[in-house]
Structure formats: structure tokens, C-alpha cells
Write a structure and sequence with these properties.
two-stranded antiparallel ribbon, Immunoglobulin-like, 27% helix, 3 helices, alpha+beta, five-stranded mixed β-sheet
Length: 155
């Protein structure tokens, strides 16, 4: 299961039973999602021959939470384990075209200004130019300046 997902993604929750390093099959698990202060059931599964019970859950789109907590409960013993998945908002159509590119590099688009965008552009141009032999010396200088500007923009 991922630790970071986007609303609308499907996540797989897995529970395993091991007793003295022996994998047990046919064990029943109940899976829950935390909603406020209550736990809401999202299904139950038995472990297969590999000792794992897997359930797939689709994160609701447009939800306002920034994280979801899930719990798996082993029915026979009552043992509970929880996991939290951070959820980032999905890109909407109204976002700028460059926000999608910056998201690939995990750059926060919330407060990006022209300074950061210019620094990123200079860095990319320098990196491209560094592979062309004729302008390599100037491109490396451009690349260094761009990286310095990017660093200054995030301090």
C-alpha cells in the first residue's frame, strides 16, 4: 500500500498472519477506514495460501482530508494494526500547465512565483545546453546560476 496517494486512486490494504514464522491461511480480517472519531467498515477478507488478506479501496474524490487512517482487525485474536496514507489533492483543470510538470518533481505549486519559475527555466536550459559541445562551457555556468537561484528561492 502506498504512503502517498491522490484522491480517486485505488489503494491495496494487506494484512498477514504469522505465528512462529508459520504463515496461516483462512484467517478472517475486518478492514476499516477512520471517519472522524468512528471506524467505518470497508470489508472483510480471509487470508489466502500466502497468508495475506488483501482488500482494494478507492479513495473518494474531492474529499477534504489530507490523510486517511485504516485499520485491520484479526477476528480470532482481536489484534489490530493501523496504517495512515497521506493524500494529496488531484490536479484540477484550472491549474496552470506548468503545475503538472512541477508536480512531477514534487515542487510545491502553492506559492511559486516568477523567481522560482525563472530559476527552474534557467536550470533546465543549462542542463540541455551542457550536452551540446559547442556551448557546454556557457551552459554549465547557466546551470550553476539556475541551481543557485533555485536554492535561494527555497531558503
Amino acid at each position: 500500500s502506498p504512503t502517498l496517494a491522490t484522491w480517486g486512486d485505488s489503494v491495496t490494504l494487506t494484512a498477514t498472519v504469522k505465528l512462529n514464522d508459520i504463515v496461516k491461511s483462512g484467517e478472517l480480517f475486518n478492514f476499516y477506514r477512520k471517519s472522524g472519531s468512528e471506524w467505518v467498515s470497508i470489508g472483510a477478507k480471509k487470508t489466502g495460501s500466502n497468508g495475506k488478506a488483501k482488500i482494494t479501496y478507492t479513495l473518494p474524490s474531492g474529499d477534504s482530508f489530507s490523510a486517511l487512517t485504516f485499520k485491520a482487525e484479526h477476528v480470532e485474536t482481536g489484534i489490530i494494526d493501523t496504517a495512515t496514507i497521506a493524500v494529496k489533492p488531484s490536479i484540477t483543470e484550472s491549474d496552470s500547465w506548468w503545475a503538472q510538470i512541477l508536480e512531477l518533481f514534487a515542487i510545491d505549486t502553492g506559492g511559486i512565483g516568477l523567481f522560482q519559475l525563472a530559476a527552474l527555466t534557467i536550470t533546465v536550459l543549462g542542463a540541455i545546453g551542457a550536452v551540446i559541445k559547442v556551448i557546454r562551457k556557457y551552459a554549465l555556468i547557466l546551470l550553476a546560476i539556475g541551481l543557485l537561484l533555485l536554492l535561494l528561492g527555497y531558503i
